[in-house]
Design brief:
The chain is α+β, with helices and mostly antiparallel strands. The protein contains nine helices and eleven strands. The strands form three sheets. Strands 1, 2, 3, 4 and 5 form a five-stranded antiparallel β-sheet that branches. The chain has a four-stranded mixed β-sheet with strand order 8-9-10-11, sandwiched between helices. It starts with a helix and ends in a 5-residue tail after the last helix.
Length: 290
Amino acid sequence: MNSILELHSHTRERSVEAVSGYWYKVQWAYSPVTEERLNVGVVFIDGAGKQHSKFLNSFERLNCLYSNFNMENFKFIIKSAGEAVSSGYRECPIETIMFTEPLQAYGDSVDQILNRLFEKVVPLGRPTIKKARQPSEFATNNLVDYIYEEIKKRKPFDSIKFLAPEPIMYRDNQGFEHSLRLHLSKPGYIGGIASTVYSSVQNAIFNLLEVANDIEFAASIQGRNSDKLALFVMSPSSNNCTLPKASIQQIGRKIDDIFFKLESKGIEVFADDNEGDIVGNIIDWGALAQ
């Protein structure tokens, strides 16, 4: 069996410029009761006896692990450990900081050794990757809730008689009862709200057709012919959804088809990709602006 010295000698033969030495972990005892230790740094001692170190400098993961984590106190602890290492000490004046027994290490450079060891034994030092926030679906129910709240803020008195949070029930000539999703209702006005901002084209078109059919049915009811009917659509765009351009265009064509169909029956269609502008359109249409 080869001795450690023979192995070390053989290793150096693989790379003339290789750096070798010893390294140890720097640990922090977070809880004396549980004796839990966290690796917070590594130290490498080169052939000349000089100590090189790398310590934790990102504390996001510690904040996640411990709700009562004191960042300023911990920064002071890390600073003290770094000063002890820089001074060549193998002990730290802070009792919660401990050094492990040294182990052999080699590499192409001091930095390469430190970075490799740090990444291996200090998982808390790995950067937190924050994923870009993707716009979520703006479902019809969410859009209706938003519009209701905005109208209540802008027109608190008119909104009482104008908003229709419950489905409108209608009984036809044969005695069958129908539930209509007509979100806006007052004498002379019937309106529906539909969002087409969904994660799939199918969901977007389904929700659009559902509300459009209810508006069209309301227009056919006897006595509703004189009502002012409208459909308010939140259309998709690159500003409010993550669908590819082709899908956005496909939904847009469907909105156009419904627009022409409903317009021919005296039903107005308002489409916008901004929910705030939709609220303004509803207020103007519903004669709430006076």
